[in-house]
Design a protein that fits this description.
179 residues, 6 helices, 75% helix
Length: 179
């Protein structure tokens, strides 16, 4: 009986040390800063994939912070940790660059989390509209660039057809009878 009594504190100590680890392992990941509406979920996921592609293929030093910043904005719908990673990368790349102040502010907001006061809730909604507008503008910009590239291809094809047409006309010019 005495031996069992000696083991009890040791078992309690082991259980006490492992319980917090088990509890933290089952704790859910921090939620996204913004929740996407069901009708926007597909568009948000497409923006996330597109911005992730930009980050992966980024090579120009001046455009990488922009790509990371836009990816961070898109990640606000994905998860706080992902957004935090991208905003920190912006600061690491260009601590005084054009996206640094906004990235620092987003990091502060991500660390503070969402406040439940009515004033701050309105602020969060206003920020969400701005983020959504920035991401939609980015998608529109991409579409315009793709259309411009398509117009350039079509213009080159039309010019080639005009040259072919002119060559055919030059070869088939009616010859004047000799007098």
């Amino acid at each position: 009986m005495i031996k069992g009594m000696r083991l009890l504190p040791a078992v309690a100590l082991c259980a006490g040390l492992t319980l917090p680890a088990c509890m933290s392992a089952s704790r859910p990941a921090p939620p996204a800063f913004f929740a996407s509406l069901p009708q926007d979920a597909v568009a948000v996921q497409a923006l996330i994939r597109e911005q992730e592609r930009h980050v992966r293929t980024c090579t120009a030093e001046r455009t990488c912070p922009r790509a990371r910043y836009l990816r961070g904005l898109a990640a606000l719908y994905e998860g706080r940790a992902v957004a935090r990673t991208h905003f920190q990368a912006v600061l690491a790349a260009e601590p005084d660059g054009p996206y640094a102040v906004s990235s620092r502010n987003w990091l502060l907001l991500l660390d503070d989390g969402r406040s439940e006061s009515a004033r701050e809730t309105r602020l969060v909604h206003a920020m969400e509209r701005v983020v959504r507008q920035v991401l939609e503008n980015e998608a529109t910009r991409r579409q315009l660039k793709e259309r411009e590239e398509q117009i350039n291809v079509l213009t080159r094809q039309i010019d080639a057809l005009k040259r072919v047409d002119q060559e055919v006309k030059d070869r088939v010019k009616p010859s004047r009878p000799a007098e």
